[in-house]
Structure formats: structure tokens, C-alpha cells
Amino acid sequence: MQRKRGKGVSPLIGGVLYFAVVMAAIIIIMNLIIPWIENTKDQIAINYAQKNIAELDSIITTVASEGETSSRTASLDVKRGAYYLNDEKDTIYFQINVSESTMSPRFRTNTGNVFFGSQLNSKATEYDSYFLLENQYLQVNITKAGNSTTYSAINTSEIINSIYYKEKEIYLYGDNITIIPNNYAPEGNGTGYVYLEEEGEFLPKAVAIAKMTNADSGSSYDLYFDLQSDSDFLLIYLKNYSTS
User: Fold this and answer.
1) Per-residue pLDDT tens for 88-117?
2) Are strands 130-134 and 219-228 parallel, antiparallel or unpaired?
3) 162 to 130, 170, 173, 193: CA distances (angstroms)
4) Which of 40, 109, 119, 218 could form a disulfide with 244 if both were Cys (CB 3.0 to 4.6 A apart)?
């Protein structure tokens, strides 16, 4: 397929448009990573990037709807940061380092195919018998059990199958992990189900939740397994505890 390239159009954008036509759908992400830079310049760069990303999304949607022979030219006004094309994940993303005073850490909003947020480095995936929570440091394998209509027997100390430390290439297996809810061992056995708070990539945090009930004590609670972007540890905490 021939691609028209206007004056000043980078090879990247030509490739982006071609890729969008072939794949028909593409996700565009703005990813903001944190530490130091001047706030005013950061904000200007972010505003330009939002404008560029919105225009790219519109162009890609139009070209994809017109068929394989359609093409467009586009130019980017890049003040700071960088744009990347990831053909394996069908994504275009903009990335810039900013200070915490410019942008709140670990948040994401989305409109259609366009995601906007900071520290979008976590991923949550569902497999046949387990969930996988992942960021750049850890992979956490979580037991998949039950569903909202059919509860399964669950021991909270058996929910984590393994934690893999990428840098050291070592596993911590579930046999070495004990989780005692509310500091009372019997609360760790009950019925319920485990699910992902949100499945997908480019998440500020990857979270699995065990919704538990204990018939003996009459208690119920939600047990959270929270792997946040840019964190080399897993948060485990209890919420919504109640007794009948």
C-alpha cells in the first residue's frame, strides 16, 4: 500500500497510519512517569500531547473506516516527551517525566481508545485457572476461584500461588505465604470467589479481590491483592469487614 507523506511528517507517523489501517483498531495511551521537571513547561507539553493524541485518534478512526487504500498525512508538534509505537500491543503512546506537583500519581482516565494518566505500568490478566498481576518488578500468580453466583471453598493463605521477582529471577511460592485476616486464623477459611478489579494493560495498579464469607463466625470481608505501578512489593489489605 502506498502511503503519502507530507513535508515535515516523520517516518513514525507514516508507519502509524499504515499500521492503523492494517489492524483497523489501535489504542492510544498517554503515560506520565514521575520525577523532576519545571511544572509550567510540563503542563504545556501535556496540553500539546493531549491535542496531538486526540488528532491521531481521529485520523486513525477515519482511515480505518475508509478501507485499505485510504491514507492520511499528519504532523506532530512535540514540545517535550516522546511518542512511541508498539506494534505488538497495537498501541501508540506518549511518555514524559513530570513532577508529582504537576500530575497526581497512579491515575487513569479514558475516552474511547485514548487513555490518559500517570504510572500506567501495571497489568492484570485472566487465565483458565489463575490471574496474573504484573508490573515492571513483579509477577503475582493468584488463584482463580468461584464467581459471583457460585462460591468456592477458599483458604486465604492459598490464594497466592507464587510471586516472581523479575530482577533476581526468583520465585516465592505460596507455601511460604500465610495470610490471617483480622488477626484471627479461623477467618482465613470460608467460601467466596476471587476476581480482578479491572483486566487489561496500562493500569495504575493491578488488583485481585477475594470476596469472603465465614459461616462459623458470621463474618464477611474483601481481601485485596494490590500491585501498584513502579512498586517492588505487593499490598494485601482487608476492606468491608462485617459480622452478622
Assistant:
1) 777 777 777 766 666 677 777 777 777 777
2) unpaired
3) 11, 10, 4, 19
4) 218
Model-level pTM?
Answer: 0.73
| Amino acid letter for position 96 | I
How far apart are alpha carbons 29 and 184 in whole angstroms? Answer: 44
Read off the pLDDT of residues 177-231 as tens digits, 9 standing for 90 and up: 888 887 777 888 999 999 999 999 889 999 999 999 988 888 899 999 999 998 9
The rounded distance, in Å, linking the Cα atoms of 65 and 62 is 5
In which element (H, E) is residue 56 found? Answer: helix 39-66
Q: 142: part of which helix (H) or strand (E)? A: strand 138-143
Question: 29: which DSSP letter?
Answer: E
| Domain spans of the chain, in order of start | 11-120, 123-243
Of the candidates 103, 91, 112, 86, which has an alpha carbon nearest to the alpha carbon of residue 32?
A: 103
The per-residue pLDDT for range 25-51, each reduced to its tens digit, is 445 555 555 544 456 777 777 777 777
Type of residue at 127: Y
- What CA–CA distance (Å, rounded) separates 85 from 28? 9
